[in-house]
Amino acid sequence: MLLGDREIGAETVKAMSGGSIQSRIVISSVVPVLLVGVAAVIGLHLVFPDAPPEVKSWIAVLCGSAVILTLFLALYLARRVTQPLDKLQDTVNRLGRGELDARHAMRGPQEVDQLGQVINLIADQLELARDELAREKKDVTQRVTGRTRELQQANRLLMDIANRDALTGLANRRRLELELERHISLSKRTGVPLAVVMMDLDKFKQYNDTAGHLAGDTLLQNVAHNLRGRARSTDIVVRWGGDEFCILVPGTSQEGAVAAAQGFVDAVVLAAENSPLPE
Description:
The structure is a single chain. 70% of the residues lie in helices and 9% in strands. It has eight helices and five strands; from the N terminus they run E-E-H-H-H-H-H-E-H-H-E-E-H. A hairpin with a 2-residue loop joins strand 1 and strand 2 (6-7). Helix 1 runs antiparallel to helix 3, helix 6 crosses helix 7 and helix 7 runs antiparallel to helix 8. The longest helix is centred in the middle third of the chain and has 53 residues, at 110-162. 16% of the residues are buried.
């Protein structure tokens, strides 16, 4: 973790806490007392070789008691010193695991609390950065989702334009090729019958040349409208090209296909009633 020119990590705090400092405190407190006690016993033997054994024993006991008392006192002081560092290390470890709400409680020595303030400040900055990153991620996701939806809509529109006849609004020949391949494959797999009705307008070219192209386009639109109105929801009405139309009639028996074809012829006749073809 970084804050300005400072770098603080779990290893740094670990090196400052726990057994390292505790051992140093104990050693630095006990060893001098132990050395003094040993020196006192040795000095007593050297300076007063004729001292009574009881005196020597009492001095040895006093030295031993001093060493033990110093040991317990050193352990107590070491614990008082290292406990705040242990808590500080626990805070750093929690932050390292991603618990960015972890904070160090300021109840230790001044030096430890100063270090804890730095770590808490780092945690605050990390939490703010995480929240900002989450907001940016949400915004990006929303924008990407919106752009993806717009792209999908545009692709569907382009696909619809590519598969639709501009004049009549019916499916075009490209769409027919796709649907015909799919329905033939389905019919082979399931045995469902498929009928294809092909039809054109007699003398349409002559009518178009005589009445004009605008009238011819209107007639084609009327025919397309009537064919679409006569078709079932499963049928596909296609403008094959020019004055030719094709209708896919799936799931229909031979008799039903003939009846459907006659219905489409009637629809064409109805569309042409107000647009008589030339003799």
